[in-house]
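Severity: low
Component: inverse-folding endpoint
Summary: output formatting inconsistent between runs
Steps to reproduce: submit the following structure tokens with default settings.
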């Protein structure tokens, strides 16, 4: 099964992110069930993007649907395509028991977002090109000894 798709560069270019491959294949059935669940939701589109957040300190992996736009983030450390969907890997560093870096990069179109401080009202204002609804789904897993254990989930799926 190939999960490295749409890779168009062998060296990093501005607006691109490193492609990673999944080396712990026990992740695939989890991703399959999440994609199946999401495909039955009102907000589902074929361009739905997912994130996989790695919390090594607490041994958690959080997988969630995040909409159809990618916002630039310091903790964005890789991406891969699976089941015709883009998965963004986030965290402080890549877990080498789950993922392996490739030499390829994927060009992404990042949504624009700017933050301004309004001194008069003492608030921050975020200007974005289409802030998305955040009512998606998230699954929480403990990841210890190369094994996933379901912890909890939340879903706004109708």
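Observed output (run 2 of 3):
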């Amino acid at each position: 099964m190939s999960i490295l798709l749409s890779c168009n560069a062998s060296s990093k270019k501005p607006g691109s992110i490193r492609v990673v491959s999944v080396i712990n294949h026990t992740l695939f059935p989890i991703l399959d069930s999440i994609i199946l669940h999401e495909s039955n939701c009102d907000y589902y589109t074929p361009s739905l993007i997912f994130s996989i957040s790695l919390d090594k300190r607490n041994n958690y992996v959080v997988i969630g649907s995040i909409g159809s736009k990618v916002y630039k983030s310091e903790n964005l450390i890789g991406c891969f395509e699976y089941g015709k969907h883009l998965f963004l890997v986030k965290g402080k560093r890549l877990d080498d028991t789950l993922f392996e870096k490739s030499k390829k990069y994927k060009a992404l179109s990042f949504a624009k977002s700017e933050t301004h401080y309004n001194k008069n009202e003492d608030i921050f204002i975020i200007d974005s090109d289409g802030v998305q609804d955040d009512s998606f789904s998230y699954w929480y897993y403990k990841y210890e000894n190369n094994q996933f254990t379901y912890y909890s989930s939340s879903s706004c799926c109708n």
